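ERR on first pass: missing label on line 2. Operator R.T. fixed the label and resubmitted. Corrected input:
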Amino acid sequence: MQTEILERMESDVRTYSRSFPVVFTKAKGARLTAEDGREYIDFLAGAGTLNYGHNHPDLKQALVDYLMDDGVVHGLDMWTDAKRDYLETLEEVIFKPRGLNYKVHLPGPTGTNAVEAAIRLARVATGRHNIVSFTNGFHGVTMGALATTGNRKFREATGGIPTQGGAFMPFDGYMGDGIDTLAYFEKLLGDNSSGLDLPAAVIIETVQGEGGINPAGLDWLKRLETICRRHDILLIIDDIQAGCGRTGKFFSFEHADITPDIVTNSKSLSGFGLPFAHVLMRPELDKWKPGQYNGTFRGFGMAMVTGAAALKRFWSDDTLERDVQRKGRVVADRFQQLAAWLTDQGIESSERGRGLMRGLDVGTGDNADKISEEAFKRGLIIETSGHDGHVVKCLCPLTISDEDLLEGLDILDASTKAAFS
Amino acid sequence: MQTEILERMESDVRTYSRSFPVVFTKAKGARLTAEDGREYIDFLAGAGTLNYGHNHPDLKQALVDYLMDDGVVHGLDMWTDAKRDYLETLEEVIFKPRGLNYKVHLPGPTGTNAVEAAIRLARVATGRHNIVSFTNGFHGVTMGALATTGNRKFREATGGIPTQGGAFMPFDGYMGDGIDTLAYFEKLLGDNSSGLDLPAAVIIETVQGEGGINPAGLDWLKRLETICRRHDILLIIDDIQAGCGRTGKFFSFEHADITPDIVTNSKSLSGFGLPFAHVLMRPELDKWKPGQYNGTFRGFGMAMVTGAAALKRFWSDDTLERDVQRKGRVVADRFQQLAAWLTDQGIESSERGRGLMRGLDVGTGDNADKISEEAFKRGLIIETSGHDGHVVKCLCPLTISDEDLLEGLDILDASTKAAFS
Amino acid sequence: MQTEILERMESDVRTYSRSFPVVFTKAKGARLTAEDGREYIDFLAGAGTLNYGHNHPDLKQALVDYLMDDGVVHGLDMWTDAKRDYLETLEEVIFKPRGLNYKVHLPGPTGTNAVEAAIRLARVATGRHNIVSFTNGFHGVTMGALATTGNRKFREATGGIPTQGGAFMPFDGYMGDGIDTLAYFEKLLGDNSSGLDLPAAVIIETVQGEGGINPAGLDWLKRLETICRRHDILLIIDDIQAGCGRTGKFFSFEHADITPDIVTNSKSLSGFGLPFAHVLMRPELDKWKPGQYNGTFRGFGMAMVTGAAALKRFWSDDTLERDVQRKGRVVADRFQQLAAWLTDQGIESSERGRGLMRGLDVGTGDNADKISEEAFKRGLIIETSGHDGHVVKCLCPLTISDEDLLEGLDILDASTKAAFS
Amino acid sequence: MQTEILERMESDVRTYSRSFPVVFTKAKGARLTAEDGREYIDFLAGAGTLNYGHNHPDLKQALVDYLMDDGVVHGLDMWTDAKRDYLETLEEVIFKPRGLNYKVHLPGPTGTNAVEAAIRLARVATGRHNIVSFTNGFHGVTMGALATTGNRKFREATGGIPTQGGAFMPFDGYMGDGIDTLAYFEKLLGDNSSGLDLPAAVIIETVQGEGGINPAGLDWLKRLETICRRHDILLIIDDIQAGCGRTGKFFSFEHADITPDIVTNSKSLSGFGLPFAHVLMRPELDKWKPGQYNGTFRGFGMAMVTGAAALKRFWSDDTLERDVQRKGRVVADRFQQLAAWLTDQGIESSERGRGLMRGLDVGTGDNADKISEEAFKRGLIIETSGHDGHVVKCLCPLTISDEDLLEGLDILDASTKAAFS
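pass 2 clean. output:
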């Protein structure tokens, strides 16, 4: 494979091409094909962007039809039939069955843009500046969002400028068993000299993705909602990675029976890997004046076409939900077996996750890298996450076939055993 | 047209659908078609995103081929043949003939993301925090970019948080005839108690878009480059709106014979309205460590396909350049005639711009709105810009046919006369 | 007493004159005299500024002699014999016996100025921006220091600007018995995505004053020093209120056998209530360039005269130290008795402190105010502190006579019983 | 002279002791005496702090009487007879004859503290964050005040943290003859995309001290007031250095017939070199809640005693005012002669100032240092200011005798000629 120009011309910031240094040319379902014809099973799936797999035929068809029909690809935030259809579908397929009532803000088509819009709206709506996020949380890297992202890798690359307007609280379980991290949050809130400015909002992933596949307890989330209500703090669920069915429900917060004030979505929202994002907000929070937040690619037409098609195709009934939950258990079982085997080898390991967002914690980033590298050699793309990169994570397409899923898991099993035998 | 759900569900932040309150269903070349079948000539063109028109057949074909072939739509920043082809084309078609040598950073696919990356890189590379931008400049609305964007509409919607790390200088001509705005900048630079922190970088649009189609003088730009070199300040040209041929050269800064340290591109970069952005940097400025700046949709596969196709199709020779310059003169002439007519009616008006980025300054936003509204009634989509919205701007596709161009200009002429007779 | 002009002309920001609404005209030792001739025992003592009482005759004599001799009252930071004598005395009387080696920075003569200088120096010396402070900590209200001060009263009076460059950790005991707050700090430090930027420094009061007379455990402080050393974080002890003998040692950190990298002093440093402050730093941390931090009243001549006299008078042997410890036990005993009595009345109360910095926690600010108001009626000036103002605090002069001390305690006893019987 | 301990123990931040490396032991009127008995005429006078000279006998007597009478030296912000007398005197002697009506905030006793309080109040009162200051302005170095101070020396010593909430405008004359700097300010204010956030306040010195003795034109100041009123921006006059008679009126703004919304005072306010500061505000701007801004040494008793004595002694009639104006002309004449002589020698020089705040601009800091060094050798203490330290400045006591004044000017004359002959 010819990679010289790629290595020479692309900035050193490139990262995934370091872990998987081949040139990919085709992608279909849960499989990527490299230029040399080798196929890889994809347990990364665009870091949660390809919940319905690569190039899903139904979505592709909708997209090609739209193109062939000269639909509006780019129209800023003008009205199009594609937007209308998307909003109608969102209301009918998603909101109504769940009893939700949100307005939709279409900012620039990236997650960080949605987060910037969400926290700015929370500030405008409350008149307060502080946004509470959580240890190991990731919400984007533009300067506004970065104030809520825990990773030093990004925080130390600002050229010395500190982020502003954010404060971090310990996530569920962060302080160890038996320590109630929400009790700490509540104490700070109720204490007039705690140093915690009364927050405009809390922003949280119900299952932390980049942070290491850390699921917050459902009771803990419910209590967090209660605390927010009591102190008049807005609750923002960042469902960019955990949403769109990844955890076994369309919105990850459905498991906890909570109703966020604001929701951010992106990644799998278009269903096809197209850049797309939105912010959902309780109607009375829509304090925006016309044009106060903009972006050239807001309301990307093609993404609304595939997004609507994906909602209709996968969310009109509970088939996918149940399938995700079933496959999630399959992955969990295999991860638990691997964790047990590793622990037997002296590598303290454990499994965690929700739905098909699952992690195998192998203690150190070095351990995880060994497994990931072995897996790639054997034809499986699987990445690591967590503060030390110590968690091997499965974000395979929700629509993966049982055959591919099992083959992938078998490869992971063999890779782990090869790495540590 | 059914618009109830659009008005009910979309956030009040929506803006273009207020100026053009119809539902668009088709787009081709320089024309948009509404649901009721009415066609509109498009002098807005995605605010400079559709330099090659809507759904250009060659680009569409490349895109559909890629899709039908199950190319990699979304692959984070992994290597693909689409990326390789894009980089090769960029080097062969654009860099080499211009004697340029840049590395390419593919951040999230929006302009503001590219600006955030560019200014962060400048800070890391210089160890300084201050980014100088200019009055009436627009460089995006995420918090980092917002520090360089002049518009109060956005700056006052942060919920009270001031931006940090930016300082504004007067743009060319801002202080009136005979006042050298760069002399002021130089004085501040050379003065140890001026209050101007020694900048990491200057970021500038060579022709300000949102600010009112304000072209900086070519000598002024050259002097700005000289000042930056003398003080070891990086020069960032934000070519997001003015680039990709809009001014009659691929890069807008070619006119001034300057070589920026860093360039930001987006909008028309994909050639098809697809979200795409990159940062170009002198190789020695590539101080990024792997993964220090990320984004889910970086290196969007489809955009690289159409982007490469557009470069090959339009930039392998100087046909388009010369055509843009010719059409630019046509628009300029008609705008000058309109300005003269308006001035005769007592409305002091003037024309300005470069290439096909042209403005008709009619003094007030109210005047400009009247013209724009009349034009829409007559089948022309044309927008306003400037600090008071007082500049009617032409950003028509560069590839517009002479017929459409003249029809559009005729409508504008009739609309202006209807508005002020 | 004539108070009309005071109420009319002084800003509503005034506070102590609301608690003690009389006009004072004389002060001597532990007693203040109001205009009507009434004497009050002073358990507030300038909020810890008058450790040697009001108008101590020896210090007054030194001051009057200096004045009569036309000594240099104000000389910016020029050299004077007064400064030389102060520095010599500081070295001989304080540093040498304790094995300390510090350089002395004389910033503006207030605590907040010393804190601003200390944290700025820590940033310059380490190249990092983050300063960790603790819940209920108070380190001043100018914008730099405010980033380390927990009180919402001040933090919410910035006109909406968030402070920058600070993060709060839970103080010793903050999370309840059995929860190790330093374990949490260490976990955050060792976690690359915790959201805690690696700190330049930690700033802490060994006994929190405004925060409610909260003494950090001595082992806890020692461990904090160890953690700082391990992570190359500077340890700043803010000894503005707890220093100058208040806790029974000249420096409050002597109890814990730690050696801070930087120390801030003010309040009782002049010994006479004169504005004075300094920053002590390990010599290798003195990264200041000439004039990089200034202030008109730095190195206030008269304060150095009384400051040197106080060091010679009170710190040449351990008489005062032992006396403070003895009196501290007297206060502690009486506070414990009061706490027990209050608890018997159903008002859960407790005593805490170190040396003559002691608090009686009576649960709520209302309770504490009742006691303080009754005490004032009976001739005792005593204030409250803590996040809810729920701690009655004793900061009486260290030199108070046993008679005055006991009379003050008797009044407090009677006031408490009057308030809650 | 023994200076080893001073050089060893004091931080490298020390500055004036580098220019005048002797140990001073006595001070009286306009003369300082070094340890070796040598007398120096003092044209620095505490950088404007000693307007009534060192150890003025009347003020000293008032102070010693207060001390001998055991007056309240330190009482936080409690009421004392000293405070009442100070406020009454301020009202009778200063406010009433000038038709002023201000409330008085007594913050910590330093200029920077007064500035922090003033700008915070402006933010709270307007709900806006931006404070406009001017090129070459100096308003203190704590982080809040630093946002309004132009000097890079301080701004670059923050450890990388940018200041926030400030913007700089060109001072009167900054852009050269014939360029109206207020026209630029007005244009930015009226332009919705200028990048200038609508300010809460403007803060300005009517004659810039540290910036190089730059007097703003009186018409220019009047127009600035008008612009502020028109845009509902508060006008803060920082009269810390230029106030207390320095320019020939008690308040420097009296010359321009303007009435600031807020005034900051310090330096010579106590009249004796004692730390003291206050903020004056229109009564309706007093938005402080009790205790929202504090400081241990606010309302320093001794300073109020000498401050009231100074007001009574010097401001009950216009004798001092007229005397300052007369002496100012004497200095101006001599400075103009020196400027002419220097210009003849090829060193382009000029004189400027107002009252006894006068500067001799000799082009470069090196030139100014040569003069200052020669003067010190000859027994005159005179300092430099300006962005390059290029202005020799006269801030001699207002009460200097004609003999001392002329002797000082003669030394300066001789020194200048020695330096450049």
